[in-house]
Amino acid sequence: MSVFEAQETVALSIEEVFALSRRVLTGAGLSAPHAEAVARVITAGERDECASHGLYRLPGCVMTIRSGKLSPDAEPVITDASPALVRADAGHGYSLLAFERAAPLLAEKARAVGVAALVINNCFHFSALWPEIEQLTGMGVAALAMTPSHSWVAPAGGRRGLLGTNPIAFGWPRPGPHPYVFDFATSAIARGDMALHDIAGKPIPEGWGVDAVGRSTTNAREALDGAMLTFGGHKGSALSTMIELMAGPLIGDLTSRESMVFDDGAKAAPMHGELILAFDPAVMGGGDAEANAARAEALFAAFADQGARLPSQRRYEARTRSLARGVRTPKVLYDQILALGF
Ligand code: NDP
Ligand code: PYC
Predict the structure, then answer these.
(1) Which of 52, 151, 224 to mutate to test the pocket of ligand 2 (most atoms within 8 A of CB)?
(2) Which atom of ligand 2 is nearest to the CA of 269?
(3) Which atom of ligand 2 is nearest to the CA of 126?
(4) Which one of the ligands is nearest to 267 CA?
(5) Structural domains in the chain?
(6) Is the terminal CB of the chain with fewer CB neighbours within 10 Å at N or C?
(7) What is the ipTM of this complex?
């Protein structure tokens, strides 16, 4: 349920969400290719009712562009680094254009070798990972993506920000339009969602964060000013640390702590790297690809047999609704976006 459930809303078509996003982003100075790549992902977030990574992100994008740290017209440099490695230097632009331009080569390599990696370096990153995962499953490969953020999250046993909210997302291609996809922060909740609780004046559950002196809090503002906590205690903490390492030093890029130092109080989006792995089940499965795919489908069917739902099912249902009827966005957010003046 949205934290803005009872609030006044504005009705927008999907086309209007994209046009508004593009207008604001180009108005703030982003080049057309970047603005369109970012607007596509913001529109997808709004369409799938992912409030923390939809239109809510536009004011933050404008703040990032105005910080002077982001290169608004950076041309991603894509390198065919080895038979199984694509490297994309985003040149301090947003990650999304680099991903879009490099993804076809990543999938091609996975199909040739079985498993391949895309390393994106020097990118500003604010987006959910599932749009990228869905692009890859649409090319017939399974995919795993991860990225650090800023050091807002305390490790298990600690009380101060050190790790990022570090999302990890996985996708498995399926027949039909809806792949199996999960995508979550390794913090108990994404920071964007925590901020939405703060804006709506809603309490947060115990276990999401601690205040500035390390006491457990149910006040979102206090947790934002203190430290967020990982999901699953030491397990989320270790998974988050793996993401720091795999999408940080392993790929020659910044950790969340180093991203925060780079930010230097500008409150821009995190700047670091992203690691995306792609797997071709037809190559890796060795034998009968159809039989292997059918076994995966039997696993998914067994969820429904006991009344469980698959991750992304809520999103796909929201997508169907939005494509038919458009979206409703909180008026307070819509007015804030118009007040940016673009
Ligand atoms: P949630 O905890 O809301 O959901 C995470 C995943 O779990 C989704 O795939 C969701 O599917 C699935 N899920 C939720 N409830 C169930 C259920 N009952 N049964 C099965 N599956 C379920 O997300 P987070 O707050 O952790 O993250 C939100 C977003 O924030 C992510 O998209 C992430 O990429 C993004 N993010 C980005 C960061 C960045 O640095 N770029 C940093 C941190 C987060 P469904 O959507 O269908 O409910
Ligand atoms: O919601 O945690 C988050 C987040 C960080 C960077 C982009 N989104």
Answers:
(1) 52
(2) 6
(3) 7
(4) 2
(5) 76-187+230-310 (3.30.1370.60)
(6) N
(7) 0.99
What is the per-residue pLDDT across 199-253, written as a single tens digit (0 to 9) for each?
Answer: 999 999 999 999 999 999 999 999 999 999 999 999 999 999 999 999 999 999 9
Half-sphere exposure of 125 (CA within 13 A, CB side): 34
Q: Report CA(165)–ligand 2 centroid distance (Å).
A: 6
Q: Confirm or reject: Cβ of 240 under 6 Å from ligand 2.
A: no
Residue 289 structure tokens: 């690809």
CA atoms within 13 A on the CB side of 12: 22
What is the sign of the dihedral through the CA atoms of 249, 195, 45 and 342? negative
Name the residue with the closest Cα to ligand 1, atom 32: 128
> How far does Cα 275 stand from its chain's mean position?
12
* Span 75-101, pLDDT tens digits: 999 999 999 999 999 999 999 999 999
Helix/strand/coil for 233: coil
Structure-token pair, residue 164: 């990022």
Q: 322's torsion region: left (phi>0), alpha (psi -120 to 50) or beta?
A: alpha
Nearest residue (by CA) to ligand 1, atom 40, is 149
Asked whether the predicted pLDDT for residue 1 surpasses 60, the reply is no
Annotated active-site residue 193? The verdict is: yes
Rounded to whole angstroms, how far apart are CA atoms 246 and 219?
32
The CA radius of gyration of the chain, in Å to the nearest whole number, is 20
Compute the distance between CA of residue 209 and CA of residue 251 in angstroms, rounded to an integer: 30
Can you state the percent helix, strand and coil of the chain, rounding each to 5?
45, 20, 35
State the catalytic residue, choosing from 48, 89, 183, 193. 193
Who's near 177: CB < 8 A, 6+ residues apart? none
Tallying the residues shown for the chain, one arrives at 342
Q: How far is CA 261 from CA 166, 214, 241, in A?
A: 17, 22, 18
